[in-house]
Amino acid sequence: MSRIAYVNGRYGPKSEAAVHIEDRGYQFADAVYEVWGISDGHLMDYEGHMARLERSLDELRIGRPMSRAALTQVLRETVRRNHVVNGLVYLQISRGTAPRDHAFPGADTPPSVVVTAKSVNRARQDAAAARGISVVTRPDIRWGRCDIKTVGLLPNILAKQDALEAGAGDAWLVDDMGMITEGTSSNAWIVDQDGVIRTRDTQANILRGITRAAILKIAGEQGLKLEERGFSAEDVKSAREAFYTNASGFATPVVGIDGVEIGDGRPGPVALRLRDLYLQRAEADAV
């Protein structure tokens, strides 16, 4: 089955989809994106992702390409046309197409909108969570506004590739204070020696993860000890557990860092419990 993409008002075969070579997303990474998980054909964490998208657009002063209702219809229609039951839908909005110039183009330049959707093997995801992944640490060389979900991901890509070539599943980025910020496309967590669940606070240069926010809420409701407080690679090595969160991996255990086992080297009970609780809620609330 040919996959279908939405580009600037038209649905068509993904293999033929294109934007202009002077689209500012291509020329300058002058664009934002969002990714929604799809469960049973419905959008997971809909409101959180939509609110973050709107904030990212506002922070970069990119105009809304259409109303929220219209955009939601495009997302759902792209999911429907691709027959996605469980998977992901990707949205990218750039400042539009204009002759290459560092200055913003005129206010009458319409933003470019691209939407794609793909199926994901949930059984394979669950198997990966049951095994856990290992990570390596790498310097965080990204720009200073990681709270905006832009498409400028070259440092993330380089760190991810470095991790894969080292035999790990991902890289956790370390700032100039020696503290872990986040993964290449995820938020980082530990359960420390005192049983406290810790993740970096959003005053640090991290993305305000939607799955992160959901996990914080769920953990609080469960009466678990929580702290939005940084940790180093050495803290991870001595932790009981570690895990990451994002829209595609939900909550996935991390069982090793820089060649050192975390805990007993197996997925921990807190991470697996939070994963189950998150999926139950996100699937029930999907729209």
Description:
This protein has 287 residues and is α+β, with helices and mostly antiparallel strands. It has helices spanning 24-28, 46-60, 68-81, 122-131, 154-165, 210-221, 233-237, 269-285; strands spanning 4-7, 10-13, 31-39, 42-43, 87-94, 112-119, 133-139, 170-174, 180-183, 187-191, 197-199, 226-228, 241-246, 250-257, 260-261. The strands form two sheets. Strands 7, 8, 9, 10, 11, 12, 13, 14 and 15 form a nine-stranded mixed beta sheet that branches. A hairpin with a 3-residue loop joins strand 13 (241-246) and strand 14. The longest helix is centred in the C-terminal third of the chain and has 17 residues, at 269-285. The protein is globular and about 55 Å long. The two termini are 25 Å apart. The model has no long low-confidence stretch (mean pLDDT 97).
Précis, in short:
With 287 residues, the chain is of the alpha+beta class.
Elements, N to C (H/E): EEHEEHHEEHEHEEEEHEHEEEH
> Tell me about the biggest sheet?
9 strands, mixed
Which stretches are poorly predicted, pLDDT < 50 over at least 5 residues? none
Bulk shape: globular
Mean pLDDT: 97
Strand percentage lies at 25-35%
Task: Describe the structure using short key phrases.
nine-stranded mixed beta sheet; 287 residues; alpha+beta; globular; six-stranded antiparallel beta sheet; 8 helices
Topology:
Layout (H helix, E strand, L loop, with lengths): L3 E4 L2 E4 L10 H5 L2 E9 L2 E2 L2 H15 L7 H14 L5 E8 L17 E8 L2 H10 L1 E7 L14 H12 L4 E5 L5 E4 L3 E5 L5 E3 L10 H12 L4 E3 L4 H5 L3 E6 L3 E8 L2 E2 L7 H17 L2
Parallel strand pairs: 7-8, 7-14, 11-12
Antiparallel strand pairs: 1-2, 1-6, 3-4, 3-5, 5-6, 8-9, 10-11, 10-13, 13-14, 14-15
